[in-house]
Amino acid sequence: MSTEVAFEQIFGRPESLKTNPTHYCPGCGHSVAHRLVAECLDEMGLREKTIGVPPVGCAVLAYNYFNFDMVEAPHGRALAVATGIKRVHPDKFVLSYQGDGDLAAIGTAETIHSGNRGERISTIFINNAIYGMTGGQMAPTTLLGQTATTAQAGRDARLHGSPIDISRMLAVCDGVVYVERCSLTSIKQIRRAKKAIKKSYQCQLDDLGFSIVELLSPCPTNWKVSPKAAWAWVNDEMTKTYPLGVIKDTTGYEDKK
Amino acid sequence: MPSEKMLMIGSHVVAEAAVRAGCRYYFGYPITPQNELPEYLSARLLEVGGTFIQGESEVSSINMVLGASAVGARTMTSSSSPGVSLKQEGISYMAGMELPGVIINMMRGGPGLGNIAPSAADYFQATRGGAHGDYRTPVLAPAGGQELVDLTFVAFDLADKYRTPVMLLGDGLMGQVMEPVIFPDFIDLKDLPEKDWIVDGCEGREPRALFSMFLGQQGELYQHNLHLQEKYDKITAEEMRWETNCPDDAEMVVVAYGTAARIAESAIEELEAEDLRLGLFRPITLWPFPKPALRELSKKVPKVAVFEFSLGQMVEDVIFSVGERAEIYFHGLPGGIIPTPADVADFLRSAAKGDGKVGRRIDV
Amino acid sequence: MITRTTFAGFGGQGVLLMGYVLCHGGMHKGLDVTYFPSYGAEMRGGTANCTVTLSDKKIASPVASKPDALVAMNYPSLEKFEPTVAENGTVFLNSSLFTETPSRDDIEVLQVPTAELAREVGSDRGANMVMIGAVCAKTGLLTVEETIKGMEGALKGKEKFFPQNQKAIERGFAFVADGK
Ligand SMILES: Cc1ncc(C[n+]2csc(CCOP(=O)(O)OP(=O)(O)O)c2C)c(N)n1
Ligand code: SF4
Ligand SMILES: [Mg+2]
Fold it and tell me: Pick from C34, C35, C63: which is nearest to B341 by CB?
């Protein structure tokens, strides 16, 4: 590979990303996730038919970074908004991008029911086990023992309930065809995540049903650790509560191969 | 072609009118006394190639409306009071994002679960914005029958013209009463002005985003609010609607809207025999409230009698309009009971005499 | 001319259908009409009622202060609505089910043995059609043809019931004409 090509690959931008610098903290998983979402759209030629719905959370300004049409949603309602969009334009490509508070707390009903209706929507779920935007409060996905500004002695199952595994909850819904959990904290997993995102897009293009890719994502700022330590914590701790891998797959894609 | 004359209940009338006005996307959650409306559309929209979704809640339903609107559809939701409270969040976002959409509220008794009898106690919520932020929603108050058809069309047109959510404010009784109506022909969606602001995929153009958040330090939110206010001023200047039926020598004009106005009108008819010269002023837009028209009327008529299905909400707008130009009398009934024309006639007799037996004089 | 009629009885007695028939007949005749049913919680416990207004002018309120006529298909309905009937109004009673009469003496009463008359014309379930026939005949609101048209409008899509219902309506008219 020539150095030029390598340079372009490492520092270039997919067309689906604008040139605006993001406001994400150093080491934040959102930046990596944005890039993956954008690369996959480019590679599948979807940018111009995509309508995205960002969350309310750290990615609330995603429309400043993604170079395709986007519609804001109130906190937690991204999948309801996306449902409205997709039902009007079944031929367009509809994407929701949501954090754990947005998707698994305030928006739980919208999430489960969009999945259960089998909405032809691809959802990217950023699980950082914390409320990033509002400054580190406990999320529904916060691990047992993990501290948060609203669980200062660490999450206690008796007091706060256990971390919720909404991806597994979604898997029991018939309308949900593909659920996979990846992380953003190793080269291998990032590659895996990219494959998963593409597969989720394909589910929508093939009109199969709802699909979701959960991405375990570091939030060094609110975990109050260095980016490096945050990566390690995802790999060593988070994956114990949220094991990586395919949770549900009724697409039949692998069988066909 | 317009339809033949048809006998239909109010909820079905609104539903059919919406379909003919080009609405193909309905999202809602069941609540009495308006279930007949979604029930009708669940079948009717399938016939015309539209989409009906029973959302998991009113919250999700209004947000489905938000999404459908953002991509250019004529879309609507409907509910009754407690459900409309849940929709307020979405309505505020739609106002901020400047998204058209129609919200039907067939009001019932409150607060809380209240009951399912008719009421008009959501006047404040409907006319004062309803949720957070500096915004207003145009509110149309039909009196039932043919006006349900006509104002449903107006609601969709206003929503598109001004890029705003519009509320049609009826009540449980109006939804259930059956009357003859004639529907205009289906509009051709192709005849509607193009929406050059929607998001539908950026093929061949720069990407667009629709949002209500303005974080800029240069006063972007301030500017946005001024822009919205300009729009509200324009609506106020151009879209007020009302109906006046008042003899020149009237000694008192009755102010009422919706079903209450119809009951009041029958009361006025009953009083004709008693030689009371009464007029009726019926606001049709509750926001913008037709203040100038009522103000003019109050210069000529010495007394104004306000009758509401609530303990006193619209009366505040009457006070703003009339001031001290005329004596104002008020009679309000809480939701949950159905007053008869005779009940209202008692109030009007009392107000005409000023004896304070039914209702009360408002001290401005 | 404005006439308000309240129909009341048990659910299942076809009370609301009588209202529809009157409404459709009135509309067919070119009158303005409104139909106002009891709804929701009021319907629990198996009672139903509706008020139909016919007028040659635009009708303002669909809610009546005092109905001109009351059709009581069971005794509780008579008890409940008798006080609301206008002076010199008319009360129609389903005498197949009860023989009590109003305590007021400023209203006219017509007892109609609806079930017996319906059976006579071979229609076990046509009691309500007999009654609406009697109501229209006595009040003069609709002719027999207009009443039948009203029934057909109200039961659009259920044409197979038309002949039976027509006989029952005609029997109601005959009962008023002949007093038996
Ligand atoms: C109705 C409402 N309630 C609360 C908030 C405040 N709020 C904004 S973002 C957020 C949580 C974000 O957490 P998450 O979804 O996990 O996203 P992250 O920032 O971690 O990516 C909250 C509570 C809001 N915007 N709206
Ligand atoms: S607070 Fe956390 S989630 Fe938000 S941008 Fe910073 S690192 Fe990312
Ligand atoms: Mg989070």
Answer: C63
- Test A82 with B67 for CB contact under 8 angstroms: yes
Q: In the predicted model, what is the mean pLDDT of residues C90-118?
A: 97
Subunit contact C62:B5, Cβ cutoff 8 A: no
* pLDDT greater than 90 at residue C124: no
Domain ranges of chain C: 2-178
- The helix (H) or strand (E) run that includes residue A192 is helix A187-205
Give the CA radius of gyration of chain A.
17
Q: Ligand 1: list residues with CB < 6 Å.
A: A 55-59, 75, 99-102, 126, 128, 130-134, 139
Domain residues for the domain of B60 are: 6-200+227-238
3-state SS class at B307 = strand
Residue burial A55-82, b: 16+ Cβ < 10 Å; e: rest: bbbbbbbbbbbbbbbbbbbbbbbbbbbb
Residues of chain B with pLDDT under 70: none
Mean pLDDT, rounded, for C62-81: 95
DSSP symbols for B193-238: PP-TT--S--TTS---EE------TTSHHHHHHHHHHHHHHHHHHH
Does the pLDDT of residue A257 top 80, yes or no?
no
The whole-model pTM stands at 0.90
Atom in ligand 1 nearest the alpha carbon of residue A139 = 16
Among the bound ligands, name the one nearest to the CA of residue A133: 1
Distance from CA of B184 to the nearest CA of A (A): 25
**Is B96 contained in some domain?**
yes
C30-66 pLDDT, tens per residue? 999 999 998 654 445 567 899 999 999 999 999 999 9
Strands B278-283 and B252-255: parallel
**Same domain, yes or no, for B26 and B167?**
yes
CATH number for the domain including B164? 3.40.50.970
Examine the domain organization and report whether B106 and B166 are in the same domain: yes
Cα–chain center distance at B67: 22
B90 touches chain A (CB under 8 A): yes
Bridge partners (DSSP) listed for residue A8: none
Domain A14-249 has CATH 3.40.50.970: yes
Check pLDDT > 90 for residue A8.
Answer: no
Measured CA to CA, the distance from residue B80 to residue A47 in angstroms comes to: 40
pLDDT at residue C46 in the model: 67
pLDDT in tens, A86-109: 999 999 999 999 999 999 999 999
Count Cβ–Cβ pairs < 8 Å, chain B vs chain C.
Answer: 73
Q: Pick from A141, A138, A169, A140: which is nearest to A154 by CA?
A: A138
CATH architecture for residues C2-178: 3-Layer(aba) Sandwich (3.40)
Supply the pLDDT for residue C42. 47
Number of structural domains, chain B? Answer: 2
Helix (H) or strand (E) holding C4: strand C2-10
Residue whose Cα lies nearest atom 6 of ligand 2: it is A25
Q: What is the DSSP letter of C30?
A: T
Q: What is the reported pLDDT for B114?
A: 87
User: Is there a contact between B281 and B244 (Cβ–Cβ < 8 Å)?
Assistant: yes
3-class SS at B175?
helix
Q: Which residues contact A159 (CB under 8 A, 6 or more apart)?
A: A151
Closest C-alpha residue for ligand 2 atom 2: A219
